[in-house]
Amino acid sequence: MGHAALKTEQQGFVGAISGLSLADIVQIKGDNLYSGCLVVEHNGKNGIIYFREGDVVHAEQGGLEGEEAFYAVMGWVGGTFRSEPKISTTRRTIDQALKFLILEAFCRMDEVNNGSQQERPMQSKSRQEQQVESSYSREGAGMNDVSAKLSVIPEIEQALVITKDGVPVDDASYEAQHLGANGLFLAIFANKIGSQFGVGDLKAATVHGIDHHLFLFDSKRHHLCISAKGSANVTSLDSEIRRVVAQR
Questions:
Q1: What are the two backbone dihedrals, phi and then psi, of residue 80, each rounded to the nearest 5 degrees?
Q2: How many domains does the structure of the chain reveal?
Q3: Which of 227, 175, 177 is nearest to 206 (CA)?
Q4: Same-domain status, 109 and 173
């Protein structure tokens, strides 16, 4: 019993909500339009993340401020946290959307684990370009043909092929970047849930919404991300999507 309690404290964040990662807690705060701050402690270090109506607007950690402070705190493995809804700030050093911040934090953590964090600032753009070029060389235009075919289904708003890092293939529009970020977040979240419940990696996932539905399908080197009207029947549309994809 003692060893189990110790392991939980070392590997997860404990506080008012337990059993969740720090990214989960930050996402919940955003979804609940939380205002206040989140105080995080790890190995004698402190970090503060400030929220305003669900948006992260400022962060502090040591001598860091803004996004760099946020990413530093998000990179901690284990620790404790507490919510302070009565503590706010008038400063705004962060303007990025919460989903972008969380995805960027995941990317930075992955690169730290791979030992490439120091190279990242100069290689970020070229790495994305290489991924897109690799998509063409390995699978040609076939993946983009799927997007074109799916666009004829009336309920579908946008169909997008993205790399496993969330980079849209052959679409640099803002809408594509936004849908790609949502798709990547869903992929990360679904894989995490699958791992926790022992059901394996993501193959397909769906988020039901009032105004929009989000579908995500996995292939060997890509994700197919689809935004659909909230009025659509999810079950019927899922079957229609699979039928069109199977005709590829």
A1: -130, 160
A2: 2
A3: 227
A4: no
Question: Final residue of a domain: which of 61, 92, 113?
Answer: 113
Backbone dihedral angles phi then psi of residue 203, each to the nearest 5 degrees: -115, -40
Give the pLDDT confidence of 115-166 residue by residue, as tens digits.
Answer: 544 444 444 443 433 443 343 334 434 445 777 788 889 999 988 888 888 8
Cα(11)–Cα(76) distance, rounded to whole angstroms? 10
Residue 225 has pLDDT above 50, yes or no: yes
pLDDT in tens, 188-212: 877 776 666 565 566 788 888 888 8
* Distance in Å from the first CA to the final CA of the chain: 54
Is residue 9 in a domain? yes
Q: Which of 90, 113, 136 is the last residue of a domain?
A: 113
- Report the pLDDT value the prediction gives residue 34, as an integer from 0 to 100: 92
Are 173 and 67 found together in one domain?
A: no
Q: pTM surpassing 0.85?
A: no
Residues 72 and 5: beta-carbon distance below 8 Å:
no
What is the spatial distance between Cα 41 and Cα 61, in angstroms, rounded to a whole number? 10
State how far the Cα of 182 lies from the Cα of 69, in Å rounded to an integer: 23
Burial of 114 (0-12, 13-18, 19+ CB in 10 A): exposed
